Amino acid sequence: MPKTPTPHNAALEGDFAPVVLMPGDPLRAKYIAETYLDDARQVTGVRGMLGFTGSYQGKPVSVMGHGMGMPSIGIYSYELYHNYGVETIIRVGSAGGYADDLELRDVVAAQGACTDSNYANQFGLPGTFAPIADFELLSAAVAAAKRQGVKIRVGNVLSSDVFYDGGANERAWKPMGVLATEMEAAALYMNAAAAGKRALCLLTISDIPSRGLGLPAEERQTSFNQMLEVALETALSC
Fold it and tell me: Known catalytic residue: 207?
């Protein structure tokens, strides 16, 4: 295993569990650890990107922030897969809704992640790569949501490098059946594929720009509990 700690992670070898939940916001990682994990301890905090390891229903689970955008999650997920022996990453994030039947706080499982990013260029592929979730993780999440009575939509999302796009992405991608937009899933799925590891992205709809709807920032940290509980039960299947 490559040397630890890394330039971006102060944890030592063995500090991370084989399965890691990753929200974008490091404070949400702290919230998850304090709310759901037993005996949670902080294992890293470089550049304020907090990471914790504890247990959930007796199973070792870690949680760590990944920041915003594909370059950021690209760095942290790469190091978790390659330096820390992590086998499974479940992104637990927010998304902007495109589909007409989505409402605030609805849960979306990203079966696939379209993207306008050039992230895949690094792999030198002679074509276009289709970033997809691990099927067993996706199936486990859908089953967990059903048991918990949580409505979950499964389908394509858009991982975009652009946040303030004036609605251009929705106009282009919504007619293709894309459910929602976020900024990280495609890079996570590519890193998992390249490393031979597993990944899933679960999302809570935090805003619907075309309808002028959105959750205040202070509500986002604590209003995603349904998604988090689905993710944690999915982690138990790993």
Answer: yes
